[in-house]
Amino acid sequence: RYRDRQARDSRVLCLDEETLQSLETMEEDGHPDLIDFRKSLLGECLDRLGGGARRLLQLRYGDGLPFEEVARIMSKSSGALRIQFSRIRRALQECVRQQVQETGT
After folding, report:
1. What is the pTM of this model?
2. pLDDT at residue 16 greater than cutoff 70
């Protein structure tokens, strides 16, 4: 219920069940502190994203809409949207990497 409520709040990005299960599996494999640390870094990086990028991520991963549906809702071509998602993922990855370097972990 908590994730459902958060999904309705456009300021919060909720992860889909598959992603959550993947993170839980990693925690069970003996790296809970590292996973929690990276989750917190990812959360900080998500907070830094602009509204348009957050909206795209919410539609695709939070609401679980198919890629084609997101493209239709956003009135974008599939090609343009794929490029935008690629840039968002790359920016998040770089943000987390940079934060890891800054903290020395």
Report:
1. 0.63
2. no
Q: Which amino acid is at 21?
A: Q
Given a contact cutoff of 8 angstroms between Cβ atoms, the answer to whether 59 and 34 are in contact is: no
Copy the structure tokens of residue 80: 């343009």
Do residues 66 and 55 lie in contact, with contact meaning Cβ atoms separated by under 8 Å? Answer: no
Distance CA 10, CA 53 (A): 12
Mean pLDDT throughout 46-55? 88
Count CB atoms within 10 A of the CB of residue 90. Answer: 10
The CA distances from residue 6 to 10, 29, 38, 45, 66, in Å, are 8, 28, 20, 18, 20
**Torsion angles phi and psi, residue 11, rounded to 5:** -80, -10
Give CA–CA dist 43/53, Å, rounded. 14
CB 60 within 8 A of CB 72: no
